[in-house]
Structures
1.
Amino acid sequence: MSNDAPATLGAASDLAGAAASALTSLTGAQPDGVWSAPGRVNLIGEHTDYNDGLVLPFAIERRTWCALRTRDDRTVRVYSTFSDEVHELSLDAIEQAEFAGWSAYVFGVIWALHERGVDLAGRLGVDLAIASDVPTGAGLSSSAAIECAVATALNETWQLGLDSGALALACQRAENVAVGAPTGIMDQTASLRGAEGHAVLLDCQSLVSELVPLPLAREGLTLLVIDTHVTHAHATGGYGARRRSCEAGAEAMGVPSLRALTEDDLPAAQDALDDETFRRVRHVITENARVIETAEVLREHGPRAIGDLLLASHASMRDDFEISVPELDLAVETAMAHGAIGARMTGGGFGGSAIALIPVERLAEASDAVVAAFSEAGFTAPTTFTVTPSAGPRRDS
Ligand code: GLA
């Protein structure tokens, strides 16, 4: 929404149809099927996933669709509604393939399935066409949505019988190796295990997850996303640096990952680590505790009671982990001054989006105030829209 009314999304069938039409324009034939998978918002639990920690994301109604048609040779072709290019690869060349551009998300999934033991030898190639309404660069996991839509389509078409955990690991591997972004397992799991009206409490060590009710509408709440348009690129820069700090902190503390530490270990960590590494470690330790508490509070008291935890998470990312930017801080502060119950930046940081939990009747006011504050500060105008905890992957036709 730009300023005063919640954005409405195109009907899902529009984009399922757009993916199907793109495939038909490529092949001259109807797809065998259209599958889709959602983007995600992380409610809380940031930079904890690659530390074997805890996260609490939810799938959103913005999705990526993948139309698929089986070929009679070994070629895979990828097309989309957002580019004129057709990318092509032979299944026989998947091991030597060099990935570049957005098709890396698609070919990377096939490569990762192969690496994880899927025998591609006797399989036929496919034509794929992608359509999406998950905004890119906004911290809403547009990349995981592509990976998970493609993986879901191939899992059914090739009758792989893989469960959501195996698919998530393959999609993460595609992101890490084919795309080159050293990210954790949260985004793919949120996309693959999301459910309407729920957040996904995921233990990134065991990969065990459970659904936690997040009944926003019933409680008269809505969740506003404020996309700052400050771009982040996780394949480079700060994300990897934070990951390395966490690994260095764990090594210095003599544990396999920061998951092994609790708030009781903070005094010893402060003695053992330099100030910067200590603050990175403190963020991860306290964030894991906040995830557990948020899930408990949601179950016992509902979403109106989690505001302080969201705010504490933001402060920790701003001050200890140092991954916020002035635009994200302004979004959080302004939303809070205009009726939000809680707010925080979401995703990897250094840009992307903030989220604000807001009573429905204050939504327009808060959104307008954020847009006005950005204008006053001389920042690029943000895009604001609401999201709802939504379903995971599915076959659409
Ligand atoms: C990005 C990564 C995730 C996670 C978050 C930070 O979204 O893809 O794996 O690390 O950043 O919580």
2.
Amino acid sequence: MKKELLFMGPPASGKGTQTNRLSKEMGLPHIDTGSLLRAAIKNETESGLIAKSYIDKGQLVPLEIVAKVIKERLMEADCQKGFILDGFPRSLEQAVALDEIRKEIDAKSDVDFKVINFEIPEGILLERIVNRVSCPKCGEIYNKKFTPPKQDGICDKCGAELTQRKDDTEEVAKSRFETYHRETEPLVKFYNERKELIALDAEGSSDEIYQRIKEIV
Ligand code: AMP
């Protein structure tokens, strides 16, 4: 059966870290709209140029752009057995767009679809964001304060130089939290009513949270 997992939660709630690990273990692609959009910016595509101004302000990139990027990605061959979506959908209109995309791509498959909602007190998240660094090569995520790499600024896994995201500043992060409450939180009710939402206690060590996720999936 095709497996489609959707990870939802506020910025820096651990979705990326957990998805990276689960995606490797399950052999399912990790599809993260933030990274797809950052790649489009780096490649200076038309979508990337538009996306940049929204990302820099911590606002949602318009639906037409995100839906196009995500649809193209979900139609690639490696998504036929399933995928883990991280950071999409983030608004009701995006959830409706995802339903439409899934109607097309899942027409011939039986699907196990689950939405996992990372529940975590917001107080600790801002500190996580401003200390976050990641590996541009393999995607590994570190925190300079809580989970630093062995050698300062260097990825433990592949030796590449770690970078900090431009939108991981206190000012932009505050705007991202506002956007999350206004646009994304209503999706909890949306998927709950459809009995597709599973609440995840996302507080604790990374290993503990991973085990909880494994029990769900
Ligand atoms: P993230 O890497 O998930 O923290 O996303 C970084 C930024 O990319 C967000 O603050 C948004 O500006 C943009 N972004 C990521 N995913 C979406 C989405 N599903 N819809 C609109 N904008 C998005």
